[in-house]
Specification:
Blueprint: H1 4-17, H2 21-42, H3 48-57, H4 62-65, H5 85-95, H6 99-104, H7 106-123, H8 136-158, H9 162-183
Helix pairs in contact: 2-7, 5-9, 7-8, 8-9
Length: about 180
């Protein structure tokens, strides 16, 4: 049974985040699309149909990018604790990971990498309005850099290469930051 306290807590959360119930639904739908595309990419399958369907369904990139947030903030999350994917990538690039931890976390690391590939593939469909000197070509260049770094991450994880994981995660974080510098408001 829903208590008044629970209802008020939910309303406060919605007010604090600025999100509506419909926005939460859209985020959940976007994450399902991202996870479906990530799985197909991991299986080596073509995702053109799924990407086109997602582009039709989601007017903006934001619900797709929300997947990088921690699970507690309605993101996809990394591993059993649901750490934010963006945070995990930053930490891997800064601090690295031991070879033993690469082996222990291999499934989660690979899932994160394929989620990133899916988000990047979708992001290419949403180039922002051009800014002086920053158009679709620059947007796609950043997406290509992110794709390259993510594929390096996949290779390093599959090879249990801790140094390669750190380098690839740092390259991926740099590619993300470069894109945000050029295109975020």
């Amino acid at each position: 049974m829903l208590t008044l306290r629970t209802l008020l807590g939910c309303l406060a959360l919605l007010a604090a985040t600025g999100l509506t119930v419909n926005a939460f639904d859209e985020i959940a739908d976007a994450q399902k699309a991202v996870l479906d595309i990530a799985k197909k990419l991991e299986e080596g399958k073509d995702v053109k149909t799924e990407v086109a369907a997602a582009k039709k369904k989601f007017e903006e990139l934001e619900p797709i990018m929300h997947g990088y947030k921690p699970r507690g903030k309605k993101g996809i999350g990394y591993g059993p604790k649901g750490e934010g994917i963006e945070i995990k990538l930053n930490n891997l690039g800064d601090k690295g990971i031991s070879g033993d931890e690469v082996k222990k976390q291999k499934a989660d690391l690979l899932k994160m990498a394929y989620i990133n590939l899916a988000i990047v593939r979708l992001a290419k469909e949403y180039p922002p309005p051009a800014k002086p000197g920053k158009g679709v070509k620059v947007w796609n260049g950043h997406a290509d850099d992110m794709t390259k770094a993510t594929l390096e991450l996949v290779k390093a994880v599959k090879g249990n290469d801790a140094a390669g994981v750190k380098k690839a995660a740092a390259n991926l974080t740099n590619a993300c930051n470069n894109c945000h510098t050029d295109f975020r408001n």
